[in-house]
Design brief:
By secondary structure, this protein is of the alpha+beta class. It contains 11 helices and 20 strands. A 6-stranded antiparallel barrel has the order 11-14-13-12-15-16. Strand 7 and strand 8 form a beta hairpin. The two termini are 18 Å apart. The model has no long low-confidence stretch (mean pLDDT 93).
């Protein structure tokens, strides 16, 4: 929609071909339906560092359209935004429909023709030039083509990797896509007892064979089968790689601002103040209420024990638990739960000043079709806005 809108704004005659019966199905479910529009990191160099190896390819594209441009685009079209934790930007309405409305109004205002319910089956190429697309038994011809079919995450929205197949057929190199930014399923049954509970500022460390592999800090969410949330999603690709080599344990530091000594002193004070209370009723000022019975159970301390009877050894074990709650990884969930997929067209085959294919002189490649990794937090949509705008702005 961004690419089509910009091309039409420049006076081009644009046909937007949509596989689904309506536009923007994936857009409407992003950010839990709230739509994390972008990330308010206005230093482009810092922003692009989040895209890992793909970042170095994106400087020219982001010079043409950056975070400031994205915010101006939506804000000046009567969609105010707000900045939340980790610089995540959302519409003030907390509704992805607001974002959808802006884009649809934009393309309609500039005369884009929308052809929905039209699954494409491939390109028609003559002498290295794309001359058409195949829709059922028809060939639709045009002067230029922009491919914005996305990856393979959330296939129920239409993202089934079709574009990758078409690009391979016409000579592009495509890295096989795999689910990325995906929730983690664990073997520990107790997580199903606290479904929907979220914890903020939790430190998560991934271990293999008892050795620390990676760690991160932020928000996590307990699900029916494991954990999700921004911090988990951003670690999921690393966890997936580790699983190839054996068991992975995720340790949760529930109280990362407490070192061992501070936590020991705090617990001693709690037990002293609540000396006649049962242990199970003593941790409410330290832990979220939903998590307390889980910690009591995992600690091995008899829940009926009076606080003044908790031994030093038991207190030391409790401290160790609070700093290292173990979760044994079962697997990563599949593409149907992934926020994005990793993989796509190798970046050397794209000119990022225009988003033009280096193999076909009238084919532009944007968004998730590109092999660019990025974290959760608005980076995926910013990639779409930027590459879409640049493609629409470059068509001659």
């Amino acid at each position: 929609m961004m690419a089509a809108g910009r091309a039409a704004e420049r006076g081009k005659k644009v046909l937007l071909v949509e596989k689904n019966d309506s536009l923007g199905k994936k857009l409407l479910i992003t950010g839990g339906g709230r739509c994390n529009v972008t990330n308010a990191e206005f230093d482009t160099r810092i922003l692009l560092s989040k895209f890992k190896d793909g970042g170095k390819f994106l400087f020219s594209a982001f010079a043409a359209w950056n975070v400031t441009d994205t915010l101006a685009f939506f804000n000046t079209r009567n969609m105010p935004t707000k900045i939340e934790k980790e610089k995540r930007v959302f519409p003030v309405s907390d509704s992805a429909r607001s974002v959808w409305n802006v884009l649809v109004d934009h393309i309609k205002k500039h005369g884009v023709t929308i052809q929905s319910d039209s699954p494409v089956s491939g390109f028609v190429v003559e002498d290295g030039v794309v001359v058409g697309i195949k829709i059922k038994k028809e060939i639709v011809r045009a002067k230029n083509f922009i491919l914005a079919t996305g990856g393979t995450s959330r296939p129920e929205t239409g993202s089934t990797g079709d574009g990758y197949k078409w690009l391979r057929e016409i000579g592009h190199t495509v890295i096989e896509p795999v689910p990325s930014l995906v929730p983690v399923a664990v073997k520990d049954a107790w997580v199903s007892r606290i479904v929907g509970v979220s914890l903020t500022d939790i430190k998560i460390t991934a271990l293999q064979n008892g050795v620390k592999q990676t760690s991160s800090k932020g928000k996590i969410l307990f699900t029916h089968v494991g954990i999700s949330g921004p911090t988990v999603l951003n670690m999921s690709k690393d966890v997936g790689e580790l699983l190839k080599y054996g068991e992975v344990v995720l340790e949760l530091d529930i109280l990362p601002t407490y070192d061992h000594a501070k936590l020991n002193a705090t617990l001693q004070e709690i037990f002293k103040t609540n000396d006649k209370k049962q242990f199970k009723n003593s941790l409410s000022e330290l832990l979220p209420s939903a998590l307390t019975p889980i910690i009591v159970e995992l600690s091995g301390i008899n829940s009926e024990t009076k606080c003044n009877s908790v031994t030093r050894e038991e207190r030391m074990k409790l401290i160790e638990l609070l700093k290292h709650v173990p979760l044994h990884v079962h697997k990563l969930l599949g593409a149907d739960k992934a926020i994005i997929s990793s993989g796509g067209v190798v970046l050397d085959e794209v000119d990022f000043k225009t988003m033009l294919s280096r193999k076909h002189p009238n084919l532009y490649l944007v968004g998730d079709i590109l092999n660019i990794d990025r974290p959760s937090g608005g980076y995926s949509l910013q990639l779409c806005w930027t590459t879409g705008f640049v493609a629409g702005d470059s068509i001659n």
